Amino acid sequence: MIRGRLAPSPTGALHLGNARTFLLAWLSIRAQGGSVVLRVEDLDGPRIKSGAVESAIEDLRWLGLDWDEGPDRGGPHGPYVQTDRTALYEIAIGNLSKQGLVYPCVCTRGDIERAASAPHPGEEGPRYPGTCRDRFDSEEAASTVASRPPAIRFRVRPGPIAFQDLQHGPLAIDVADQVGDFVVRKGNGTAAYQLAVVVDDAAMGISEVVRGDDLIASTPRQLLLYEALDLTAPTFRHVPLVVGPDGRRLAKRHGDTRIATFRKQGFTASQLVGLLAFWSGLSPRGSECMPPDLVSSFDWNHVPRDLITWRGELGSKNPQ
Questions:
Q1: Is 186 noted as a catalytic residue in this protein?
Q2: Assigned architecture for domain 86-196
Q3: Where are the beta strands (DSSP E) in 98-157?
Q4: Active-site hit among 49, 98, 186, 252
Q5: Model-level pTM greater than 0.90?
Q6: Which terminus of the chain is more exposed, N or C, with fewer CB under 10 A?
Q7: Largest Cα–Cα separation, the chain
């Protein structure tokens, strides 16, 4: 059974960029006759916005996207909100611990930056140098030294991790060289994204993951976890992001591109879906349509492999 997922994070409102990615993920599964799961990824506690979960679900429904399982519908693979799945993440960490594949770490971000020989150019900061790799015998020992609960890191083996991306072709990333041992549980006890998404996708039977290509670098880390936990990895397809005229990821600096804002301005769902479909090579410029209209003719070969540039302005009569 082909199964895909929509996984909004309630750290902000749904905007044109992530709406396009969700549309493509939905179309890919529906065109194959598969099932769609909605999962709320709400582990980034400090950044979670009040009401964002409800708003995201409302926006997705307004755009004409649906799902077969989710927090509002239930299903056999629930719960469908990550903060309700903590016990599953702890089981996975226990499994990794028994294999000697994780260890406690008390390093702060400042410690890592001071220890790194050169800063990493990405968003995740410098490479972790392995300071705590063989430093402590237990989490309790680490807590005593630091007077705070430690994070838990995964031991990364050396060498590149090769994988096939359905959009970009064969790729290989050396996690040990670029990132180092990565966090699977934060010091506050919350599972890190890399672990949670692996546990959840496997438990929910997800066979295909479609997401933005800003997450390509996460894929080899997740593949290491799939292997260590003896889980079956899905296929991955990373699609180009929607960016502003400056070439940077769509954000507030490019104006208000929230779906909710366009709704308030009087745009219809078919107008916005038509724009997303045009960006995706699935319909002509200026057309109006809804997601079900695109299923029968959906073909990944029509989807551009380049970044999409948004040049519209808030209040424009035509969002294209």
A1: no
A2: Alpha-Beta Complex (3.90)
A3: 102-105, 151-154
A4: 252
A5: yes
A6: N
A7: 63
